[in-house]
Write a structure and sequence with these properties.
4-stranded antiparallel beta sheet, 7-stranded mixed beta sheet, mainly beta
Amino acid sequence: QVQLAESGGGLVQPGGSLRLSCTASGYTFIMGWYRQAPGKGRELVATIAGPDGTTNYAASVEGRFTISRENGKTTAYLQMNSLKPEDTAVYYCNAKLTPWSAREYWGQGTLVTVSS
């Protein structure tokens, strides 16, 4: 069992920046962020995996968002720059213990609102 604790959401103006944090109660092979905007389905934002920190980004955030890990790889960060109103969503931390794990763990979600 893994618990995920998120922080860092809030209100920011277009063009601004925010950093989300997610701390896991233990090591996980993959950590990532998903988001769900009002009236839409949950979508992948970014993932980071393995000891070499292989990253993957949604096309909509490539070049603006950066995912990273530290603290023995139990904490993942999502640095979000050049935020747009369409980035407004609840952001959820996600983790898997191994690459082949069927089970996924989710955080409680943190709201990011991009508005002037």
